[in-house]
């Protein structure tokens, strides 16, 4: 039953990622439920409530240090999301930005090409992390 599967939030700004994930679902068989969120407001609103099945938060951003810092601080200050791994997906990643994100509490920052092979890798990574 899918309601029993771990939950992963995916906050994104690029609708292409939703299409890529949906096209891959039959092929990669994720071991989790994926909830797409398209606004920072919705993501932060959901973090006000305990979600026992929430295991990972994926955040796809245009790499903006100020925005990244603000989101991470808010997520890490919530008692319901402070211990949940946050993985950032960004198109242009620099070593200094990655270190800053990790220092602020991100689990990882991955450089994102918008293609199906990358999305398969993300699904496989999440399947491993939620075990």
How do you describe this structure in short?
The chain has 131 residues and is an alpha/beta fold. The protein has helices at residues 15-28, 40-46, 65-77, 95-103, 116-129, and strands at 7-11, 33-37, 54-61, 86-90, 108-111.
Low-confidence stretches: none
The helix/strand series, from N terminus to C terminus, equals EHEHEHEHEH
Average predicted local confidence, pLDDT:
79
Shape field: globular
Strand order of the largest sheet: 2-1-3-4-5
Distance between the termini: 17 Å
Characterize the main sheet: 5 strands, parallel
Descriptive labels:
single chain; 131 residues; alpha/beta
Could you characterize the architecture of this molecule?
The mean pLDDT is 79. The chain is an alpha/beta fold and 131 residues long. Helices cover 44% and strands 21% of the residues. A 5-stranded parallel sheet has the order 2-1-3-4-5. α1 crosses α5 (116-129). It is globular, with a radius of gyration of 14 Å. The chain has 5 helices and 5 strands, in the order βαβαβαβαβα.
Helices and strands in order:
Layout: E1 7-11, H1 15-28, E2 33-37, H2 40-46, E3 54-61, H3 65-77, E4 86-90, H4 95-103, E5 108-111, H5 116-129
Parallel strand pairs: 1-2, 1-3, 3-4, 4-5
Helix pairs in contact: 1-5
